[in-house]
Specification:
The chain has 398 residues and is an alpha/beta fold. The chain has two domains: 27-237, no CATH class; 240-398, Nutrient germinant receptor protein C, domain 3 (GMP Synthetase, Chain A, domain 3), CATH 3.30.300.210. It has 14 helices and 13 strands. The chain has helices at residues 2-16, 54-58, 79-85, 106-111, 114-122, 140-143, 154-168, 177-185, 202-205, 239-248, 311-339, 346-353, 355-361, 365-368, and strands at 30-41, 44-52, 69-76, 93-95, 101-105, 131-135, 192-199, 219-229, 232-237, 255-261, 265-283, 286-302, 374-384. The radius of gyration is 26 Å and the shape is globular. 36% of the residues are buried. Its main location: membrane.
Length: 398
C-alpha cells in the first residue's frame, strides 16, 4: 500500500514538470500552403504559393463566391528570403506541412534546380511526400493559378491526377523530393519529372467562370517527361517515349495498349501487371544490359472482326503487343542516348555487376552510355477476354 502511494506521488510530481503542447500552433494563425511554383525572373526567384481559404474549402455552409484558394507571390535572391518577404502581404504565417504540389518553370529547370531544392529538403516543417513537376510552355505561377472542377483545391487535383495517371496510363511519373534528390546525386541514374501544361485560355482558367460550365474551358493536363542531367533539364520525351520509360524502369502498373485489328479496326488491351528486371554485365571489358519485361493483360475493347476463341489469334496478338512494348522502350532508350542521360539507372546495374569496372567509367558515364548495348526481351501474355468471348462484331459481317 505504501509502495503504491509512493509511486502515485512520484508520477504526480513528474506531471508538474510536463510542458504540454508548448510548440503548438493555432490554425487561425496559419496560412496552409498546398501548392508552390517557382520561376526565374531577371535573375531573381519568383515564388508563388497557393493558400487554402478554410471557409471556402470546407463548403458545408454554401459558398460566399470567393475562390477556394488564394495566390501570393514575391521575388528575391533566395527561396528562404522570398518566403519571409511574403509576410508583408499574407495575413498569416505560411505553413508548408500540407504541401501537395511543387511546380518548376521549364526555364528554371533548364538552368538548374539544385540550389532551390536545398530549402525544401532542409526546412523542418516540410514533409517530402509532395510531387514535383515541370510547367511546359507556361510560367509555373500560371499553373497554380488555374481553378479546377471537382476538386476545390487545385493542388489536390494535380496531386491525385498525377497518382491516377501514373497507375492507370503510364506516360507520367510521380516523383517526390527524396527520389529527385537521390537521382540528382546518384552515380549511374539521372532524374526525370513529369510535365504539366494548360489546355485552354489561362486568363479564363484563373476566374470562377472556369467552374461554372459543364465543359470546363481551361484545364491542367500532364504531358511528356522532362529529362535531366544532374539538376539541369536537357529535353522532353513524347508520350510513346514516356511509356517506354515506365516499361524500362519497372514503373508500369497499368495502361492501355492498342494494335491494328482486321482490315481497318483496332483492338485494345488493359495491362493488369508488369515487372521489369534489369541485369548488368561486363564481358571482356565491355558493359552490356539485359532488360526482361513480363507483362499480363486483359482484352478491353474489340472494334473489328476477329476470332478470339482461337489460340493462334491470341498468340499472334501477344507477339504484336510484345513488339509494340519493345518499340516504345527502344524509342525511349534512343532518345535518352541522344541526350546522353541515363534515366533508366543502367549505370547502377553495371555498378552492381562489376564495382571495379564502374570505378573506371563512372566519371564519364555519359560518354559510355550512348554506345551501351541494351538487349530488351518482352514476354506478353493475354489472360482474360472480358465478360464475353468472341466479339459480336463477327455477326455483323453478314
Amino acid at each position: 500500500m505504501i509502495r503504491n502511494a509512493a509511486l502515485f506521488f512520484a508520477v504526480l510530481t513528474l506531471l508538474l514538470f510536463a510542458t504540454g503542447c508548448w510548440s503548438r500552433r493555432e490554425l487561425n494563425d496559419l496560412a496552409i500552403v498546398t501548392g508552390v511554383a517557382i520561376d526565374k525572373i531577371d535573375n531573381k526567384y519568383r515564388v508563388s504559393v497557393q493558400v487554402v481559404d478554410p471557409g471556402e474549402a470546407a463548403g458545408k455552409k454554401g459558398s460566399s463566391g470567393r475562390s477556394p484558394v488564394t495566390l501570393y507571390d514575391a521575388s528575391g535572391d533566395t527561396v528562404f528570403e522570398v518566403i519571409r518577404r511574403m509576410t508583408t502581404v499574407t495575413p498569416r504565417k505560411l505553413y508548408f506541412s500540407h504541401l501537395r504540389m511543387f511546380v518548376l518553370s521549364e526555364d528554371l529547370a533548364r538552368e538548374g534546380i539544385g540550389k532551390i531544392l536545398d530549402f525544401f529538403s532542409r526546412d523542418h516543417e516540410l514533409r517530402t511526400d509532395f510531387y514535383i513537376v515541370v510547367s511546359k510552355g507556361r510560367a509555373a505561377k500560371d499553373i497554380i493559378s488555374i481553378l479546377t472542377p471537382l476538386e476545390k483545391n487545385p493542388s489536390t487535383k494535380m496531386f491525385t491526377s498525377l497518382e491516377v495517371s501514373e497507375k492507370a496510363w503510364a506516360p507520367t511519373v510521380a516523383i517526390q523530393l527524396d527520389e529527385l534528390i537521390n537521382d540528382i546525386v546518384s552515380e549511374g541514374k539521372e532524374p526525370v519529372l513529369t510535365g504539366i501544361l494548360i489546355k485552354g485560355n489561362p486568363a479564363i482558367g484563373k476566374g470562377k467562370g472556369n467552374l461554372e460550365t459543364i465543359d470546363t474551358p481551361t484545364n491542367l493536363q500532364y504531358g511528356g517527361i522532362a529529362v535531366f542531367k544532374k539538376d539541369r533539364m536537357i529535353g522532353w520525351l513524347n508520350e510513346e517515349e514516356s511509356k517506354g520509360v515506365s516499361n524500362l524502369t519497372n514503373r508500369l502498373d497499368s495502361t492501355v495498349m492498342e494494335v491494328a485489328c482486321g482490315n481497318n479496326g483496332k483492338l485494345a488491351v488493359e495491362v493488369i501487371r508488369s515487372n521489369t528486371k534489369v541485369k548488368g554485365k561486363v564481358k571482356d571489358g565491355q558493359p552490356e544490359i539485359k532488360v526482361t519485361i513480363r507483362t499480363e493483360a486483359n482484352i478491353g475493347d474489340v472494334e473489328c472482326q476477329i476470332d478470339l476463341m482461337k489460340s493462334k489469334t491470341l498468340y499472334d496478338l501477344e507477339i504484336e503487343l510484345e513488339q509494340k512494348m519493345k518499340s516504345d522502350a527502344e524509342r525511349a532508350l534512343s532518345k535518352a542516348k541522344k541526350l546522353k542521360s541515363d534515366i533508366f539507372g543502367f549505370g547502377e546495374a553495371i555498378h552492381r555487376a562489376d564495382p571495379n569496372y564502374w570505378q573506371t567509367v563512372k566519371k564519364d558515364w555519359d560518354k559510355h552510355f550512348p554506345s551501351l548495348p541494351v538487349r530488351i526481351k518482352v514476354d506478353f501474355k493475354i489472360r482474360q477476354l472480358g465478360t464475353t468471348g468472341d466479339s459480336f462484331q463477327n455477326k455483323l459481317k453478314e
